[in-house]
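Re: the multi-chain job from yesterday

Posting the exact lines I submitted so nobody has to dig through the queue logs.
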Amino acid sequence: MNQLLKIGMTVQTGDSARSCRVEQFLGGGGQGEVYRATLDDAAVALKWYFPAQATVQQRRNLQLLIAKGAPTARFLWPLALAVAPGVGGFGYLMPLREPRYKSIVDLMKRRIEPSFRVLATAGLELVHSFLELHAKGLCYQDISFGNVCFDPANGEVSIGDNDNVGVDGETGGGVLGTPRFIAPEVVRGEAAPSTQTDLFSLAVLLFYMFMIHHPLEGRKEVAIRCFDLPAMTQLYGVEPVFIFDPADDSNRPAPGYHDNALVFWPIYPQFFRDLFTRAFTEGIRDPLHGRVRESEWRAALAQLRDLIVYCARCGAENFYDAASGQSAGVCWSCRQPLRWPPRLHIGRQVIMLNHDSRLFPHHLEQQLYDFSNVAATVAQHPGNPAIWGLKNLTGRNWVITSGEGAIKEVEPGRSVTLAAGTRINFGGVEGDIRC
Amino acid sequence: MSAGLVLPLWRALGASRRGAAHVRSGLPNQDALLLPDLGSEPPWILALADGHGSPKSFRSDRGALLAVNTAAAVCRRLPCEPESARLSAIKHWAEDYLSREIVRCWRTAVDEDMAAYPLAAAEGAPSGLASPEGGHYLAYGATLLVVMVTATFILYWQLGDGDILTVTDDGVVSRPLPPDEKLFGNETTSLCADRSWQEARTAFQVLAGAPPALILAASDGYANSYRDEAGFLRVGSDLLTLIRTDGLEAVAANLSDWLDEISRQGSGDDVTLGVLCRTTTNPARLGRWG
Amino acid sequence: MPKLPGGELASRPLHFIWIADCSGSMGVDGKIQQLNFAIRDAVPHMQKVAEDNPNAAVLVRAIKFSNGAQWHIAQPTPVAEFKWLDLEAMGVTDMGMALSMLAEQLKIPPMSERALPPVLVLISDGRPTDDFQKGLSALLGEPWGRKAVRLAIAIGEDADYEVLQRFIGHPELKPLQANSPEALVRHIRWVSTAVLKSASAPASQPREGGVSKLNVPIPAPPEPGPDVAEDVW
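And the result, C-alpha cells for all chains:
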C-alpha cells in the first residue's frame, strides 16, 4: 500500500546523519505516509510527505519545531528531519504512539467506552497541553481529532501530528485540512491561526469528547447534501450556530442524525453546559474576549470530576447538579432515582464523597493543580463497614467541629466520620459536610 | 487535472454467480455487483453487496442491489479533483460522514422499496407482516464493499464481511482495510444493524506515483472457498499475472466458470468478484467486461 | 479452462462433537446401550445430510466423561468414514473436565478461522461431580466455543437441567428430554440431521450488536449520617 518509501530502506536524519531503517507502513493521510522505523534499536515513527507537501516552508517550520522541543512529554514531537538519497522530498522522525492510546475517532465509533472520570481527566490533560503549547509561543494551524489520543484506562493524553504547529502571530493563514475545528474567523479568511483561535479548537475538542458530537452540526448540517467548500465555509465560518444556542434554535440537533448530542447534553451539570454555551455563542461573536480560557476549562473539569456520583442501582456515573436541587436526580441509564452520597462544601467547591473520592491540594489551599499529591481519601471504618469517613493524608492536623459543637483534632492518618453538619478546618480553608 | 499526475488507465471486470448451495435449495443469488463505466469521467466506483440470505433476510437480494446503487450515488458527491491541500479534508469527511450517509440513504431506499412493494405472505415473511421480526431493515440486510478511484485518491470502504485486496506492480498483495475484530465464524456486521455506520472501515489512499496495479473486491463466499488465507491472497497476484499474460478479455471470458467451480468445490455460497486493473498499454477501447 | 487463480479450494470444516456421560448410572436400565444404539442409528442419516451439502466438510468425534474425561473418538473423522464405538458405563460424572478438554481443541489452531460454527451435543443423565463452571468458562472463553451451536439431551429424570441449560446458553433453546428409548433415538436423530443441515448453510448472520453503555461496576456508596458515637477514628 505504501508508495513513497520501501520497507527495509534506510533514511538519514538531517542533522547528525544517523541512519534509520524503514520497517513497516502504518498508514497514509492527506499530507503523507507514516512508517514505523528503527533508530539505534529504538522504534520511532517516520512521516514522509507527498511531493506536493514537501515544501520549503514546511521544512523550515519543522526545523523550528525541532529546535524548540516539545512543550510536554504528552506531545509526539518532531525529533529530527529525515532525508533519503534517491528519494525526493523529506520527512521527519517522532516518537511512536503506544498502542494503549486511542483517538477521539475511536471514541466516536464507540470502540472505547471510557468513564466520565477518564474523560474529565483526559480533558484536564488536554487543557494543560494547550496551555503549555501556548506558553511556548506556539499555536495550531490545524488540528484533527485523529491526533488527539488518550488512554481509556486512565485518561493520559498523547497528541500527535504536530508538524502543523506554528508560531503565534507568524502563521501563514489558510485552512489546511478540515474547517471543523478551526475558528470561524479563520475559516472566513479574516484571521490567521493564533493562540486565540486555538481556544476555539480546544472548545470544539472538549465538546467532542463529552458529547461525541460537533457543536455546530445540527439541522443545518443535514441540509448539506453536497460536500463542497462553499457549503462547509457557510456552516463552520459564515453562519456558525451552536446547536444549543439559547437564542437561536435554527440549528438544533436532528433526532436520528445527531442523537449523541441529544443524549449526552442533559447528563452534565448546568455550569458545565453553560461554559460550552458561552464558548459557542460569545466565543463565536467575540474572538478576542469572548472565548473560554484554558484556566476556566481547567477549573470546570476539575469541578466536574468532583461531582461524579454512582447510581446505587446500576453503577452508572451521574453528576450532582446544584442548580437542579437535591430532590432532582434520576439515573440517565436505569431511570431510577439517585441517592446522593455525602458531600463536602469548601468555599464554592462541591466534592461528592464516593467510595473512591479523593481530595487534592487545589481543593484545600487554592494552589496549583497537582493530581499526584493526594490530600485525603474516603475510607471505611475498619470495625464497622457502615461508617464512612474522610482520611487525612496531609502532613498537618485538621480540626473538626461536629454537628453538636464538639471540637476534635484529626491527625494525619486518621479519619473523620462523614456526618451531616460536621465542619472541618483544614488549615487554610474550612469545609462542611452535607448529606 | 493537476500537473504532473498521469491519469492511470483502469479496466474493470467482474461476475456474480449463484452459489452451489443456493442452486440446490432454490434460493436466488443474493449478491449484487456494480462495475464502473470507465468511458465516463471519474470517479469510477466499484461496489459489491452480499445479501444475508437467511430466513429473516428474505429480501436481501433487493437489499444488496439497493446497497450498491446507494453507495455509488453517495460517493459521487465527494469532490474528485481537489487541490492537494484539501485531501486531508476529504479524508476526514470520508472517515466521519461517508458511513453515516451511506447507511442513511440505504435505509431511505429500503423504506421506499417497502412502500412500493409491501411484504407478502408468499415471501415467507414471519407472522406480523407489517413489522417483521428484527425490523424491516433486517429483511433487506446486506454487507457492502466500495472502491472509489479518482485521479488523486482511492477510497476503500467496507461494512461487514467480504474482502478487498490490492496488488502492487510487483505482485505484492495486501489488505488496505484494517480487520474487523467483530467478524468471526459466520457472523457479520451489516447495513441493517443499529448504529451500523460505526462498524464501517475506511481507508483513504492519496495517489503518489505508485497506485495499485490491481484492486479486487469479493464477497465472503469467495475467500471461504479456500483452504487458507494464503491461498486466497494468491488470487490477487495470480489474477494480475493472468491478465498480463493472457489479456483481460481472456480472463473475463473465464470468470463465470471459475466462480461456479469455486462455489462448487468450496463454500457453496454465492460468489462475486469485481476487479479494477490498471494498465499502461494503449487502450484499443475503454469500457468494461463482465 | 485454464487453472483457477489462487491456492487450494476446500469445503468449510464443520466439527460435530458428541459429549457423552458414561457415569455408572448410565449402566442402569440399559441407558448406555440405548445411547450407543441411537447414535449408531443416526450415522447413515447424518451421512445423507452431509452428502446433500458437499460444501460443508462434516468432521465427527466424541468425548466421554465419568471419572475424569477422555476423547472417545479423538480424530475429527469425515462423516462418510465415521464408525461409532460403543461407550461403557462406570464411574462418576466429571462433566467440567470434558468441557475443559473440549475447549483446548477449539483453540485456533487446531481449529481454523474459516470453519463453520461447530455443533456440540452434550448428553447426560445426572449431576456433574466436578467443577462444571470452570469447564464451561474455559469453553466459552474460546471464540469457537462461544460461536458453537450447543445442544443438550437429558436422559431420565435425574439429569441436571440447570447445568444443561447453562451449557446451551440461550434461553430460547431448552435441553431435550429423553425419557424413553424412542425419545432418545428421536432427539439424537434431530441434532444430527436437522441441526446439522442448518449449520451447514453458508448464510452470514448479522450480529445483534448493541452499543455498550458508559458504566462502572457497582460500588456501595457511603451512607450519609450514621448515628454512632465516634467522630474521629
